[in-house]
């Protein structure tokens, strides 16, 4: 599920990140994270929701669905509560913005892309003026070869904050 390094079910070895990409022709926007076992070369694929494109308050960090307005804030699409998503992404609400971005950056390196995106979305949901979080997210969307409509939605929101030149 790409919030933890995948373990080979054959030899119990930690698998190595082997690329990722958007699953084409799906409206619910899933991406696949590929893993490969360094020992037996077995491959595995984790399917992950892309989460909110523009992480407005009131959207689910897991799938981008709309949260109920009661205290549980439960997602109408995936059923996770706000508290469950924070726990799932191991988010510490006492993190500074810098600390949260650093944790996200470290998540992407070994292939924990879902974790990294979840943390960046959490940062942007709290404060959409954090340019660095938009820029990293954009780089991830580029790697995923995100579809045009999602990129347009993203660029419209991020473009108000991020200097065009910082993106490429
Ligand atoms: Zn193996
Ligand atoms: Zn959801």
In short:
The protein is 35% helix and 12% strand. By secondary structure, the protein is of the alpha+beta class. It has a three-stranded antiparallel sheet with strand order 1-2-3, with no helix packed on it.
Give structural notes.
Helix content is 35%, strand content 12%. The chain has 168 residues and is an alpha+beta fold. The chain is globular, with a radius of gyration of 16 Å. The model has no long low-confidence stretch (mean pLDDT 92). Bound molecules: zinc ion (ZN) (2 copies). One zinc ion binds next to loops.
Number of strands: 3
The helix count comes to 5
Tell me the overall shape.
globular
Category from helices, strands and their pairing: alpha+beta
> Radius of gyration over alpha carbons?
16 Å
What attributes characterize this protein structure?
single chain; 168 residues; alpha+beta; three-stranded antiparallel sheet; binds zinc ion
Write the layout of secondary structure elements.
Blueprint: E1 16-22, E2 30-36, E3 43-49, H1 82-88, H2 97-108, H3 113-126, H4 131-144, H5 148-159
Antiparallel strand pairs: 1-2, 2-3
């Amino acid at each position: 599920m790409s919030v933890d390094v995948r373990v080979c079910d054959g030899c119990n070895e930690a698998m190595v990140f082997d690329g990722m990409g958007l699953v084409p022709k799906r409206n619910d926007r899933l991406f696949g994270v590929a893993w490969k076992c360094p020992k037996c070369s077995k491959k595995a694929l984790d399917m992950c929701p892309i989460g909110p494109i523009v992480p407005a308050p009131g959207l689910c960090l897991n799938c981008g669905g709309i949260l109920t307005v009661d205290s549980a804030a439960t997602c109408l699409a995936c059923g996770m509560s706000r508290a469950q998503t924070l726990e799932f992404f191991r988010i510490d609400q006492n993190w500074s913005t810098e600390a949260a971005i650093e944790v996200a950056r470290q998540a992407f390196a070994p292939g924990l892309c879902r974790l990294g995106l979840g943390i960046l979305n959490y940062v942007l949901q709290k404060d959409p003026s954090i340019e660095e979080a938009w820029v990293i997210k954009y780089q991830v969307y580029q790697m995923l070869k995100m579809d045009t409509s999602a990129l347009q939605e993203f660029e419209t929101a991020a473009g108000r904050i991020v200097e065009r030149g910082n993106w490429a």
